[in-house]
Amino acid sequence: MATFDLIIKNGKIVTPEAIVQGDIAIKDGKIKEVSVGKSIEAAASREINAEGLHVLPGLIDSHVHFNEPGRTEWEGLETGSRSLAAGGVTTFFDMPLNSTPPTINKENLELKRIAANEKSIVNPRFWGGLVPQNIGDLKDLHENGVIGFKAFMSPSGIADFDSADDETLYKGMKEIASIGSLLAVHAESTVICDQLAKEKQSQGKTSARDFVESRPIISEIEAVRRIISYAEATGCKLHIVHASSRKVIEVIREAQQRGVDVTVETCPHYLSLTVKDLEEKGGLAKCCPPLRDEEEVENLWNAVANGEINVIGSDHSPAPASMKEIKGNFFEGWGGISGAQSTLNIMLTEGYFKRNLPLEKIVELTSTNPAKLFGLDNKGTIAAGYDADLTIINLNESFELKKEDLFYRHQHSPYVGKTFKGKVKTTIVAGQVVFENEKIMVEK
Fold it and tell me: Which residues contact 365 (CB under 8 A, 6 or more apart)?
C-alpha cells in the first residue's frame, strides 16, 4: 500500500526565503514532508521527477473576472479555471461585478459558489461587492466567506453594479472595519476622467493616446488620497488594486509610514505593455486605468524590486471579440485585458530574465503575500502541513504564445505572438495533477 499519493523528486524548491534541492511528499491534498539533501524513499501512487525543474507554490490570482453566472459568454468558471491551471495558478479570487446577479448579498454569493464547485478545477474564492444598496448585507457576506469587499470609485461599466459615492464608501468602510474585513478599491476620479473624456471627444480627439490622457495618473492619485483619508477616519483595512504607476504607490507608501493599514496590487500588463501596444493592438490592450509609457513601466519594476508592491493580480477581464473592436474611437469598446494564463510567464520573462528579479520575490508577490494578506493560512509556501498547491516550471524552455494555446473562452490576448522564457509544465491542486504538458488532466 502506498505511503503517499505523490512524491515530487529532485526539484529545485522555491520559497520566499530560498531555493533548495529536494523532494516533496504529498498525501490527502497536503504536503506531508519536504526533504532537502536527502531523498524521500517511500512508496507513492505516483512520482514526478522534477530534476532540472523548479517547484513553486501555486500562484494565487487575487483579481479575476469570470463573469458567471449571467455573463458566461464572456468567460466562465470552466474556461477561466482551466486557463489559470495552464498558467500555474491554483487559487483565484473572483470579482463581484461582472456576474448577473452581482455578488452583493449572500444569496448571489451562493449562486457563484455552486457554479464554481461544479466547474472550477482550481480553488475558488470570492470578493463581495460594496455598492450604495448593500451596506446592510456586508456582514452576511463576510460570515459566508467572502475574501473581502470591492468598490468602484468611478463607474464600473456594469449597469447593476453601481459605483460607490463618498457616503457609501465611508459608511461601508465603518461596517467593514467592524466585522474585521478589508476593502479593495478601483481608484480613479470620476470627475477628472469624465471631464477630460468630454473635452477630448468634443474636439474629435479619440486616439489611443487621447484615451490614455483622459485617465491620467493624477486621477488615480486623487482617488487614492481620498480613500486613504476614509481609511484613516474609519480604521478600515484598505487594498488598492491595479495601480498603474509608481507615483500612485508613493502616495500609498506615505500612508503606510503614517500607520495606515493599506496595501497595493499591480498587474502584469502594467509591467509589460505600454501605450504603444494600445496603439498597435487596439481593444485587446485597452484597460482602466490605461497602459502608461515605457518610463512608467520601468519605474513600476523598480517598485517591485524595492518591495513597494504587495501583490501581483492579473485583473483578467475578458469579453467577446466584438466588444473589443475599436473603429477609430478608443473611448468605445470594452476596457479589460485577457491575461490570467500569462501572469507567471510575464513575471519570469520580464522580471527574472530581463531584470534579475529573484524567483523568491516572484513567489512572494504571486503566492505568499496574497495568502498572508487574505488569510489563507495553509497556502502560499512549500512546507509540511500546507496545501499541496504547486506549479512545476522549466526555466530553460521558451515558447511563442499562440491563440490556440489559450484556454480562455475567447482566444485573444495582447500577449499572443510574444515569446516567453520559462514554461509551466505541471500544475497541482490539493495534490492532484490538473495540468501537465499543455493538457488539462481532470474533468469536472
Answer: 304, 309, 310, 311, 312, 347
Find out if CATH 3.20.20.140 is the number for domain 58-373.
yes
Answer whether 303's CB lies under 8 Å from 246's CB. yes
At 225, is the pLDDT very low, low, confident or very high (cuts 50, 70, 90)? very high
59 HSE (CA, 13 A, CB side)? 34
Are 88 and 407 in contact, with CB atoms under 8 Å apart? no
- At residue 418, does pLDDT exceed 70? yes
Residues 229-253: what's their mean pLDDT? 98
CATH of domain 4-55+384-396+421-440: 2.30.40.10
91: confidence class by pLDDT, cuts 50, 70, 90: very high
Contact 8, 33 (CB under 8 A): no
The residues spanned by each domain of the chain are 4-55+384-396+421-440, 58-373
To the nearest whole number, what is the mean pLDDT of the chain?
97
Give residue 321's identity as a one-letter amino acid code: A
What pLDDT score was predicted for residue 37?
85
pLDDT at 340 over 80: yes
59 vs 443: CA distance, rounded Å: 21
Among residues 236, 289, 282, 288, the alpha carbon closest in space to that of 262 is found at: 236
Task: Copy the grid coordinates of residue 284.
Answer: 485587446
Closest to 278 (Cα-Cα) out of 345, 315, 324, 218:
324
Q: Beta strand 419-429 with 390-400: parallel, antiparallel or unpaired?
A: antiparallel
